[in-house]
Design brief:
The longest helix is centred in the first third of the chain and has 17 residues, at 2-18. 7% of the residues lie in helices and 48% in strands. The strands form 2 sheets. The chain has a 12-stranded antiparallel barrel with strand order 1-2-3-5-6-9-10-11-12-13-14-15. A two-stranded antiparallel ribbon has the order 7-8. It is built from 1 helix and 15 strands. The relative contact order is 0.19. Strand 3 and strand 4 form a beta hairpin. The protein has a single domain (2-260), classed as monomeric porin ompg (Porin), CATH 2.40.160. With 261 residues, the chain is mainly beta.
Length: 261
């Protein structure tokens, strides 16, 4: 079973690389972007895949963590997805697979207007990093139930502001508060965007071995070298909030390929 899953991850990455030159999809980063971000680094936004689009993405993180996700716009203003991954997938030795796949669902409640942001309701059970069996949680908790808002402004290109209120289902560690995230995207030319987010981690500041109460500050860059294809580089935890590996930011790579079904 694990060997088959490894092949699935490898094939999904190969599929992305092979098809970058023949995609019919739109640009995914910068001023010319036509596809909304569904996430900044870890934070869910109000973005949603249009009906008829499918996205395959991979997050490659420290400790050999690899998370693959597939999402599809199944109805107007409704998208669904499934993801799976584990630690030590890239490296040597046996992979430490997550116990269960994760699911995501999004419903756009309100489209953006001149005076109001777009709003999206959803849930996402995919956390990031290693999974701690002792407390039934990921290093970075999954969003769980969330409501996100996004608003675009014209400012030397585009500036997009984001906010997200979420409640994670990973609450057996005793930290089960509602949580808040804020973030922004700034375009740099036609195909490049800078992104940043701050996770207040109100549901991750009470446990003995996890957050220190500073929250998680993450930044990244997104580049669209071909239509429908996005490459990203992320730095997580610039405030050294995590207790299990203090002293520096985590570096990660994000790859996303989106095209019509």
């Amino acid at each position: 079973m694990n060997n088959r899953l490894t092949y699935i991850f490898a094939l999904s990455l190969l599929f992305i690389l092979v098809n970058t030159q023949c995609t019919l999809a739109q640009i995914t980063a910068g001023e010319d972007a036509k596809i909304e971000y569904r996430y900044l680094v870890d934070m869910p936004t109000a973005g949603i895949l249009d009906k008829g689009l499918v996205s395959i993405s991979n997050d490659i993180m420290p400790n050999g963590v690899l998370i693959a996700r597939i999402e599809a716009g199944v109805l107007q203003d409704v998208s669904i997805g499934i993801s799976y991954g584990g630690a030590n997938i890239i490296g040597s030795g046996s992979p430490d697979w997550y116990k269960l796949p994760a699911a995501t669902f999004r419903f756009k409640v309100m489209k953006e207007s001149l005076n109001a942001p777009s709003l999206t309701l959803g849930f996402d059970t995919q956390g990031k990093g290693n999974y701690f069996d002792s407390s039934s949680r990921y290093q970075i908790k999954s969003p769980g139930l969330f409501v996100s808002g996004s608003k675009n402004f014209a400012l030397m290109g585009y500036l997009t502001l984001h906010g997200c209120l979420n409640y994670s289902f990973e609450s057996t560690d005793g930290d089960n508060f509602m949580n808040l995230n804020v973030g922004a995207e700034k375009t740099l030319g036609a195909r490049v965007s800078l992104i940043g987010e701050y996770n207040f981690a109100l549901n991750d500041n009470n446990a003995k071995i996890y957050g220190k109460g500073r929250g998680y500050l993450n930044i990244g860059v997104r580049w669209a070298p071909a239509d429908g294809f996005t490459i990203g580089f992320d730095l997580r935890d610039l405030l050294s909030n995590k207790k299990w590996a203090p002293g520096g930011a985590d570096r990660a790579i994000h790859i996303d390929y989106t095209r019509p079904i």
